[in-house]
Structure formats: C-alpha cells, structure tokens
C-alpha cells in the first residue's frame, strides 16, 4: 500500500535537496538561519551495513514482528508506534508483563542521525541498539538465540534473510537481525518540515512568532547542545529533571563525572513525541521548554518567550516516513 | 498512504460483483459450486448505524488507539494485528500485564458477516462486541468512563466524533465509540479470494487438488456448519477439542444444553489465522481438519483427504483490506 522504492529515489535525490536555495532571499534573519542545517533525507550509512532494499524490507517485517518477544505480542512497533510519532506517548516504557521501565521511549524517527543510542548513549549506533530491547527483561524479554530459532521456523524469513545477506552461509543470525532493523530505521526520517523549507529558502514557511522562537532558541543558548541537523550534539549533559533519580550515563561508565548525564535528545518532531524528559514526567512542550531554561540555562523564561520557542519547535515536525504494515508469515 | 475512499466505491460496486458470471462455464463441478456463495464486498449494515466515511475514519483511529487501555500500550490492533491476519497468531490472547486469556483471538476480518460475536456468541453484533475487550480485565482493562474521559482530552477526537455524529449533543460516548469501531470493522473484508473468483466463473482459479478438497468439504459434511459467504452458520455446536475444558456458550446462557458449545468460526482466511480452535492449541491447518473430522463428523480422514481439504481452505484467503495507520493525537 506504499511506494516501496520511493526511499531509493529519495536517497539519490537527497544530496541535491541538501543544498540551500536561500542564498539570495532575506527576511532579516539570515544570520540566524545560517546557524542551522536542514535535515538530509538520509543519515550516514555505515560501510559495513550498506542500505539495500532487501535489508529494509526485512527490517520492516522484523520491526513489526511480535513473535521475537517472550509473550508473542510485543514488537518494536509496540513502543515505537507509527501512530504515535514512532514512540508511545506514555511517560515510561511499558513492556513484558506490563512492567514499567525507568525511562521515556525515544522516537526512532531520525535516530540514524544520532551519534550514540539510548538515553545513556550505551550503544554507538543502530546496529548496537537494535538487539537491546528484544533481550531486555522489561521490554520484549526474549533471549536472542530463541528469537533466531523462532525466525528460522518460518520459510519466508529464511528466504528474506537469504535475499538480504546472499553471501552468508547462515543468514539468520543476531548480527543480521540487528543490521536489518538498523537499515529499516535509517529510512524513518522526516525531512521537509516547515523549518527545513524555511532554511532552504521558503521564507514564508515560518510565521513571525516561529521566527521569534528561532531567535530565542539561538540567543538563549538552546542551540549549543541542540545543534546539527537532528538538533542534538549527541553529547552527554548533566540534568536532574523533576521526579528523576536516574543516574544516566553513570550506569554505563561508572565514572563519577557521568552521574546524571544524558545524551541530548533530538528535537526533530518534538511536537508529536510527548511526554518529555528521561522520565517522561513532563506532559507539555511548554513545560519542557521552561524546565530546560531553568535547569540547563539558568533562565526563567517568560510566558511569551516559552510560547515563541514552543511555536518554533513545532516547525521541526516533518513529513512522516513511508513504511509497510507487513504481511507476516 | 492508502486510498481512503476506495471502500466507498467498492460498496457501490459490490452488488454487481455479487452476480455469478459462471452460468455458461462448466468444469464438471457445477453442482458443487452452486452450494457456495462468494463473499460480498460488504456485510449487512444495520439501520441504526449507517456506514459513513466519518465513522470509518474515526473507527480506524480508535482501533489503533492504545490510550483507551489501562496500560496505555494495548489497542484493538495489538491482538487484532493487521500484520498477522488481524489476529495474533499465538494460542490464547495475551492482554493487560501479560495475562493470558482462555481463548484464541478470532480475526476481525469479515466479522461483520457473523450473526453473533465472540466464541460463545454473547453479543449479537459488532456494536455489542466492540466495548468488551476494552473493559475486560485481562485485555485492555479500562473502565469505559475512563476511556471516554481520555478521548475527550484530545481536541482531534472532539472534532472527529462531532463530524461522525453531527446530531449528538455529546458525541464522545460509549455508544458512539462502539458504533465507530463497528463501522471500521465492517470495512475489513477480504473479497476476491481464489475461491470467490472460481465461484464467479474463473474455473482455473482453483487447481485440481483444491477442487477435490472442495468436493471432500461438501461430501464429508463440513459445509453443513461452515456455510454461507463467511463459511459459518453463526450457530453453536458442541465440541471439546484436545486440552480444552472451556464450557463455551454455557457461560452465557447457563443452560445445560449449551455446555461446550461454541459458535462456528469463519473459515475465510483460515490459512493465515493459525493457530486454531477455541484454545488455540492446534498449530496447523492439517491438524485442525483432522480434529474436526474426528470430533464433529466422526470420520478419520486419510492423509490425502486432509491435504485436499487443507489446499481448498487456503483458497479462502482473500485480498487484505486497505486501512490507515492513523496519525493519532
């Protein structure tokens, strides 16, 4: 029901679309616009996991496959729900047997642009990320060897893995499971948001309030950490939001300096990926802006400023990606 | 990403398509073919719930809406998963907090053709059926008044309910929730299966084995209960399949004669709605055919006959319906 090959056409065109068209136009904010980068149509593709149609199709199937969970009803798409901004819109992730985790589910949208994965950055890339939630006791609670056994039972998966990894003797492996899921996720990007159109020269794509919000976003220092095309430096910063005792990256490194540090989350599509913060305790974007002002920047934003910045952040919601609801075997 | 209005065109055309085109053709099985009815494109629409585009769109949203469950992560689509034949492909339904119910999840495909709903027929129609799983402690575990409160929080639902029920003062109600879900489900039909094409005159739509299976299906009495366009008489028959102690319809009526009686399940798409039986303990269609032969018909089918009937049953898999993965508020 979708155009399967459109992402292939798009990846070919994305280099062109990355070029700014706005050189001659000016709405008085040229200096500000130049600080930002439009979202490319595709993130970097790692040399050891080329993006092929076969892997993306397989990854799409696996993303929706609940039978690689212990209960048989939880898939990646349960918490990363395409109907809910590829997240879950509840404070903290709910997984196997209704267990509730400690952290808010990050959206998978544009996750290929992040230079580390998970709130604590414990994996460097999507290949490393993909298997974690399958194994985690409070998420899908499935031993990877059992997941591989289940997939191997289906002749359709035997075919699709063989097609995606034609040089492998045993193509159904944990490595290839991770690579296929990562490949699919690298197609889940949201280009052409109003802000991207603005950066590319459509100066009417943002209204006056949204432009004021852009200025406030820069002038108040938000852009220091929320930088780059995905509005994240992929770096770790110390924050304890209301209600959180989570030690963050300290759990990964054991180093004192990493206490309470979390990776900067992307702001792309932040308007549709509520609630906010590592513990999901912040319901609205206005509250989130106020908290970031006071906790990270030491500023008590006035209501007008909060509204302006919030309006700007809503312009970062892009075109939702195409995908298949696969017919699983 | 789909053609929103195609079901409207289809409902207009369905009367035409219901006409048999095969009057002049004959492959030697005319007497058998005449015992069957092709699946109409649409089931009967009740007078008090007209099928409108607005209700279907709203019902589509609600079907995928997990926030009308207590956990916030279970929707109708969790167990009635479009990727899995609009069922779950596990033996027994798994719901709130990982609780496992007593019965296998029936597919919602073509459920509008059934004259009673649930394995025990405790509701007469889809309007009656729709609210049960939301409330059930082992499914979505949500009090209906809380579901209504949650939906009312979203301005988009306020708009969509008002558009679907323009004459209602308080359009967000349990009645209208049920009507919208029922309306959406009435669009989830699977016409144009190989067998339907065969009945309409494409005599090559079935191969020789499948035709032998059709003959065996009639001659052995399967068609006595699996009758009508959806291959069910919507009636109740006594059966205790291996491993089941479920008393079935007795739970509804309390009448001794209803002990162990279950409503005949549809055989439409039975090839993609495994596992089988009220307890889901039967993994393959071949086993299911053998069990039905011995338990219901007092016949021990030979392997060849089982294979023929199974081949025939696979011809009942039709075209999967179009639907939206909605953008939820």
TrEMBL record, chains A, B:
<dbReference type="Pfam" id="PF00034">
    <property type="entry name" value="Cytochrom_C"/>
</dbReference>
<dbReference type="InterPro" id="IPR004852">
    <property type="entry name" value="Di-haem_cyt_c_peroxidsae"/>
</dbReference>
<feature type="domain" description="Cytochrome c">
    <location>
        <begin position="208"/>
        <end position="317"/>
    </location>
</feature>
<keyword id="KW-0575">Peroxidase</keyword>
<feature type="signal peptide">
    <location>
        <begin position="1"/>
        <end position="25"/>
    </location>
</feature>
<keyword id="KW-0479">Metal-binding</keyword>
<protein>
    <submittedName>
        <fullName>Cytochrome c peroxidase</fullName>
    </submittedName>
</protein>
<keyword id="KW-0574">Periplasm</keyword>
<keyword id="KW-0408">Iron</keyword>
<dbReference type="Pfam" id="PF03150">
    <property type="entry name" value="CCP_MauG"/>
</dbReference>
<dbReference type="InterPro" id="IPR051395">
    <property type="entry name" value="Cytochrome_c_Peroxidase/MauG"/>
</dbReference>
<keyword id="KW-0732">Signal</keyword>
<keyword id="KW-0349">Heme</keyword>
<dbReference type="InterPro" id="IPR036909">
    <property type="entry name" value="Cyt_c-like_dom_sf"/>
</dbReference>
<dbReference type="InterPro" id="IPR026259">
    <property type="entry name" value="MauG/Cytc_peroxidase"/>
</dbReference>
<keyword id="KW-0560">Oxidoreductase</keyword>
<dbReference type="InterPro" id="IPR009056">
    <property type="entry name" value="Cyt_c-like_dom"/>
</dbReference>
<dbReference type="GO" id="GO:0004601">
    <property type="term" value="F:peroxidase activity"/>
</dbReference>
